[in-house]
Every structure is written in C-alpha cells, then in structure tokens.
# Entry
Amino acid sequence: MIERSSTEKSGGGIRIDREKCVVCGACSAVCPSEALIVEGLALVAVPERCRPCAQAALICPTGALTCPVAEASRNRFNRARQA
Ligand code: SF4
# Structure
C-alpha cells in the first residue's frame, strides 16, 4: 500500500509528511515491526503492523514522522532537562 497524500496517518497515530521525507530509510531500519518499508523511491506504511514504539519518529533526520508516543517522549525529556 503506497500512500500518496502529503501528510498521512498510519497505525499508532504516526504521520508521514511527504514534503519532508527524503526516503533515507532510517525509520525503516529501526522499526521493530516492519511498519515502514522503503520500496524503490517511496516510503510505504503498513499501519496494521505499527505498535507504536515511536522509534521511527525519534530517529527521522528531517522531522517527517510525528506520533503521539514520540511527542510524549520529547515532552518528558524537555521537562527533565529544564528541571
Ligand atoms: S527517516 Fe524520515 S526522511 Fe528517512 S525515510 Fe523515514 S520518514 Fe523519510
């Protein structure tokens, strides 16, 4: 399944911003459930496989992936850093 919209929602609430994605494959490499796959020049999402663990959103170098779990993790980190 190849998603075509510029911003789309996958399983676990993860969003792919196609304008930012450079198809580097970093997210696909760290995803433990193979929910993100690089096929040719496209990043393919398999929403039903996403747990979600947030690893892909945290490693994305361009900020193309966002998800509620990653945002919660970033917020906890920022609060701990400011304390
Ligand atoms: S890590 Fe980010 S830029 Fe790289 S393929 Fe995944 S979504 Fe695209």
About this structure: The pocket of iron/sulfur cluster is lined by residues 16, 21-27, 43, 60, 62, 64-65 (CB under 6 Å).
